[in-house]
């Protein structure tokens, strides 16, 4: 396998600009996702839908990203990271304009799919550019630097979304992406270093179709009963079809000379454990940004702007805690940090099952901040664990598979949350379309249990797995 090529060795200034470009990509995606979650009730009112039936707006975006991510890795190898990253920002911006002009839920879901196509290239290609450009001992601080500016999105997203809904309309939550996208396109064209693999293998279309079939089938199986009214027999058939598609891909990958994702990646212990841990832990983490704004607005009577303000402690605590992750991993190792922190994240999620209208404001703020802090530690630790031992040769394939699992689990998180809400609304006697709080309580408890149980996966790590032995100088964070 030939080494990926770069047009020129980037200067320190170019490396710094590239980090900010990738951070801008994360900013666009996180800003969009948090604004949408906060504005879902306003969208539902405008489009004549029920607030608890709007999960398709979120699922369409994240599932499309999961479906398109395998293509992004191949495109980056074939055409170069700079060209693909530029195209990603452009498509994402066009999708935002289309979403702002949607007049029905169907149109909005369709244009969210267009956004997903751009986002699918945006996230993994940006991470791949960092992975290929920085040496292994600097990758962890570089990823942390990229993630911190990216947290500006969720920091201002909910409040900005609620404010825009209050003074204008929900359409402006998509238009806000346009100026950021224009600046990102210009900066990428001028400053982004290029990297490509001149010997890119032909695209594995058969394996890709099997993966797409599996992901779409499991999503429809979990969400179809809630939104599409699919009968139980059809749900069972879809689940079996999904399992069969994933098994068929495994058999195909063993025989294919150049599979889209080589099964050899799973021989890397940190990658396999990190990937499985991400898959299940992010189901709960993907559900929470959808559930919390709905809880505040639908069950507790908050306005969109007030719900956005209540999300500030989550993002602020996440930004603060991310600064200490490197030191924690260096001192205690990945196993101890992830096992303990995964349980803490699950408990933080389950604690929302105790929410009531009479809960003191200060206690609610502490609860939100605690969840934001431990959830941020979880993300950074899982991300760096999964990617830390990928060599340059496996960077493209492993990075794309990791991004696929991230987005699939986020999509499944919203799907599971929507299905649980609908199920508990009809199952719990006290839960009705008007009194939704008992259904939210049961849903938070379930996602907390799912997340805490994921700690068993991280317990399979060797206790001495840590970051690189060389201690990173703080000045290198720039």
UniProtKB/TrEMBL annotation:
Query: Which compartments does it reside in?
Result: Cell membrane
* PROSITE patterns with a match to the protein in the record: MFS
TM helices/strands, residue ranges: 54-76, 83-103, 109-130, 142-164, 170-191, 203-222, 234-254, 266-284, 290-316, 337-355, 361-381, 401-428, 440-462
Is Transmembrane one of the keywords UniProt gives this record?
A: yes
Q: What is its main location?
A: membrane
Coiled coil stretches, renumbered: none
- NCBIfam families, from UniProt? efflux_EmrB, PRK10504.1
**PANTHER family, from UniProt?**
BLR6921 PROTEIN, MAJOR FACILITATOR SUPERFAMILY MULTIDRUG TRANSPORTER MFSC
Kindly provide the name given to this protein in its UniProt entry. Answer: Multidrug transporter subunit MdtD
Organism of derivation? Paraburkholderia acidicola
* Lineage start: Bacteria, Pseudomonadati, Pseudomonadota, Betaproteobacteria, Burkholderiales
């Amino acid at each position: 396998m030939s080494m990926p090529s770069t047009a020129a060795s980037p200067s320190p200034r170019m490396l710094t600009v590239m980090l900010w470009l990738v951070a801008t990509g994360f900013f666009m995606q996180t800003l969009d996702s948090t604004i949408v979650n906060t504005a879902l009730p306003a969208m539902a009112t405008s489009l004549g839908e029920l607030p608890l039936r709007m999960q398709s707006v979120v699922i369409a975006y994240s599932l499309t990203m999961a479906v398109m991510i395998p293509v992004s890795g191949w495109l980056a190898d074939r055409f170069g990271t700079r060209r693909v990253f530029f195209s990603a920002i452009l498509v994402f911006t066009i999708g935002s304009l289309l979403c702002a002009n949607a007049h029905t839920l169907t149109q909005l879901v369709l244009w969210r799919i267009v956004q997903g196509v751009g986002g699918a290239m945006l996230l993994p290609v940006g991470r791949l550019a960092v992975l290929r450009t920085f040496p292994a001992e600097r990758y962890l601080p570089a990823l942390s630097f990229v993630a911190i500016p990216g947290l500006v999105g969720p920091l201002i997203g909910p409040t900005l979304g609620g404010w825009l809904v209050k003074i204008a309309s929900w359409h402006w939550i998509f238009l806000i992406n346009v100026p950021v996208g224009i600046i990102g396109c210009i900066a990428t064209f001028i400053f982004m270093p290029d990297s490509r693999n001149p010997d890119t293998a032909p695209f594995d279309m058969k394996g890709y179709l099997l993966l797409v079939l599996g992901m779409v089938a499991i999503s429809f199986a979990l969400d179809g009963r809630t939104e599409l009214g699919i009968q139980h027999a059809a749900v069972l058939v879809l689940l079996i079809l999904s399992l069969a598609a994933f098994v068929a891909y495994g058999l195909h990958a063993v025989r294919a000379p150049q599979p889209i994702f080589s099964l050899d990646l799973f021989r890397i212990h940190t990658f396999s454990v990190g990937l499985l841990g991400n898959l299940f832990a992010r189901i709960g983490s993907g559900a929470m940004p959808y559930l919390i704004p709905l809880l505040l607005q639908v069950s507790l009577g908050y306005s969109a702007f007030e719900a956005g303000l209540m999300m500030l402690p989550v993002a602020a605590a996440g930004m603060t805690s991310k600064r200490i992750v490197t030191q924690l991993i260096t001192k205690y190792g990945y196993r101890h940090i992830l096992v303990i922190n995964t349980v803490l994240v699950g408990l933080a999620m389950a604690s929302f099952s105790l929410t009531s209208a009479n809960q003191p404001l200060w206690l609610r703020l502490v609860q939100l901040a605690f969840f934001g802090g431990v959830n941020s530690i979880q993300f950074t630790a899982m991300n760096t664990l999964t990617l830390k031992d990928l060599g340059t040769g496996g960077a493209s394939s492993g990075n794309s598979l990791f991004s696929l699992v991230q987005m699939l689990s986020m999509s499944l998180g919203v799907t599971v949350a929507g299905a649980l809400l609908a199920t508990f609304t009809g199952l719990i006697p006290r839960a009705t379309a008007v009194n939704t709080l008992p259904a939210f309580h049961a849903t938070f408890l379930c996602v907390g249990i799912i997340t805490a149980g994921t700690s068993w996966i991280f317990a399979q790590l060797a206790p001495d797995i840590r970051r690189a032995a060389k201690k990173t100088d703080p000045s290198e964070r720039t």
